Structure formats: structure tokens, C-alpha cells
Amino acid sequence: MKKLTFIAILIPLLVSCGSASPSMPDRDYTRTHPAPKAFDPNRTQYTCATWTPPSDTDAEAEQWYRAATLLHAQKWRRTAQELQDMVILYEAAASRGHYRAINNLYLLYTGTQGAMGDLFDQRPDRARKWLHYGLEKDWAIAYYWLFDSLYDGHAGYYDPKLGLAYLQKAVELGVPLAQYELARIYNIKLKDSKTARVLLECAAKQGFSAAMDELSTFKWIDGKLNESLLLMHNAVRYGGEKGGESALLLTDVFGESKGFMQEFSAIPADPVRIAAYHELYVALQGTDTTSGNIFYTFPRLDEVLPLPPAKTNWKGIYSAMSKEDAAFYQNPPDTAALAADILKRGIVKKEEVYWSPRPPEPPEDHGL
């Protein structure tokens, strides 16, 4: 099952107080805690629970986390040293209980973000450490991580049936990523699009752009074009990969020919909106030669690029960001210097977090 790559950027996640333990006992959580109720594939009724992420009080940890995301966003264009700096920055933030850093480390170490490419092996030991840390804190999102581990065999766990029970628990606790993931299971595996829509609605209400993007397609198929248009626009606001995809679709919606969006033929062509949504698409997804940044969000989008009939006041992507984000991204920190300072201060130990490259594959022997 393909996992999402961008939970940490889709909603305004916060961070927890306290300090993370430098080492977590190597134990089996599923053997020391009672299992949640089993997943029922015939269940069709869900209440849209909402969650409150852990709170953030450590400004330095937030600085390290945000610096790490600058490197994270570069994807395959990162050098091996930049990937190492990213891990150091995330680990330093995680050592102070930074929620989003821990989330991203779990995803990186299990390989579900494609972070390593062909250069680095997974780190199940580190994934297990942070999985257990979240479970000890009783973070709702940690039950999603446990589902991921049990379902796909990460961090030393494997029990798909039990994994689905923990996914259901995370849904009932209001985790939007879990709501989205379970919606996909209902739609793809169980062929129940009605229940899938209910769960997508739940996740979309919490600002989850991937859910908005998929739900907009359902609305579009149903002929509810105004609702579909609003969902695509709001998906862009909350960023992420799917926010970028929605931005690209909106360039067709406001285009002359409409491309794949012929159902929106009644909407007049608008060159300003075409250019603006294309700029947003490139900002999030990048081009063949430049990286985008799926960590971007655009909370001021309605102020500068409202949907018609309101007039636009577009002045580029930074005009749609919060003022704090615009300042940060236009004057980014020196990530290498921050990582070096973390090691110098002993906040993390290089030998604990160093991610050794995978040895090159031997050449194929085709014989004589």
C-alpha cells in the first residue's frame, strides 16, 4: 500500500513539550497493550472526530525542524551530505519532543517517503524508537504509525489484520491521515465509495489537502462543480503534493480550452488566474530542473486569489503565505551551519544518526 508522503505539511501540526528519551526499550507494544477492537469491513457509519495535535513551546526545535524541511523538499536533488544534515536537524528537533520532526523521521526511516532512493537502506531501529516514543506519549498519530508498521512490515512489526484495527482506532481519534487512508481502503479494496466519501469529508474538514483533492473528483463526477472547484482551491491553500496537483487542474479550469476539465466550460478563461495557479503548481511540485516545496502552505490565498466573481490581487506566491513564512522562505537559514552546530553542542551524536550509504550493486555477470 502506498503511503502518503506529506502529513507533516498538510495541516498546522504543532509540537509537544518535554524531552525525548535518548534510547527507547526494544519491546513489542502489541504484546504489552490490549488490542483495539477489530476492524469491521462491513462498517459504514463513521463520526467525523477531530484531533488536537501536541502543542509546541520550543522555538529552537521549530527552527531545526523548518530548516530540515528545506532539505527534505529537495527530494532526489539532495546530496548525501544534505540528507545527513536533514536527519541531524530532524533528530535534534525530535530530541525535544517535536511532533512533526518525529513524524517525518518515522516516515523517512521506514522508507515510505522515498527519501533514500537507491542510496540508503531503511533504518527500522530508528523508526521503532520514534514509533514507541509516540505510543508512550499516547499521541493519536502514533496509532497511525503502528498501523503503517503492522500493515507493511516496518520497524520490526508485521500483522496486517491488527494493523487495520489500529488504523480504525486512529480514525476514531480524529487523525486526518488515518481518515484519508481508510477512505482509500474502502474505495479501492472494499469497493465502497459511499463510505469512502464520508471519511474523505472528515479529513477534508480538517484541512487535509489530499482528501480535498480526491473529494473534488467525486463532486466533479456528481456534477457538483461549485463544490469541486472550492475543494481544489482549498487543497492548494493547504499545500502538499495533492495541493500541487489541484493547482495544475485549476490552470485548465480557467484556461481557454479547459483541457481535461471540459465540465467547467461555463467558467470564463482568466489569464491572471491561469498564471497564478501555474506559479503555485511550480512552487509546490517544481519543474524538470527545479525542486518545489510541498511544505508550503498559503493561508492568505483568498486575500490575493479568491475564486470568481471576486477580483484578484495576485502578487506572487509569497503574497499568499503568512508573513512569517514569506520571510522565512525568502531568507532561509544556513542548514549546514545549523547541523554542524547541533553536532558541536552534542545535541545528537553523529554515530547514532549517521546514515551510511548502501554499497554499490556488483555488476551483472552475463557470462561469456
Compose a concise summary of this entry.
With about 375 residues, this protein is an all-alpha fold.
Layout: helices, strands, pairs:
Elements: H1 7-10, H2 29-32, H3 59-72, H4 80-94, H5 99-109, H6 124-136, H7 140-152, H8 160-172, H9 176-189, H10 193-205, H11 209-221, H12 225-238, H13 240-253, H14 271-285, H15 301-304, H16 317-320, H17 323-330, H18 335-345, H19 350-353
Describe the structure.
The protein has 368 residues and is mainly alpha-helical. The protein has a domain at 216-315. The chain has 19 helices and no strands. Helix 12 (225-238) packs across helix 13 (240-253). The longest helix is centred in the N-terminal third of the chain and has 15 residues, at 80-94. The protein is globular, with a radius of gyration of 21 Å. The two termini are 41 Å apart.
Q: What's the story with the biggest beta sheet?
A: none
Poorly predicted spans? 1-25, 112-118
Distance between the termini: 41 Å
Report the strand count. 0
Helical segment tally?
19
The percentage of residues in β strands lies in under 5%
Keywords:
368 residues, mainly alpha, 19 helices, disordered N terminus, Sel1-like, Sel1 repeat family protein, TPR-like_helical_dom_sf
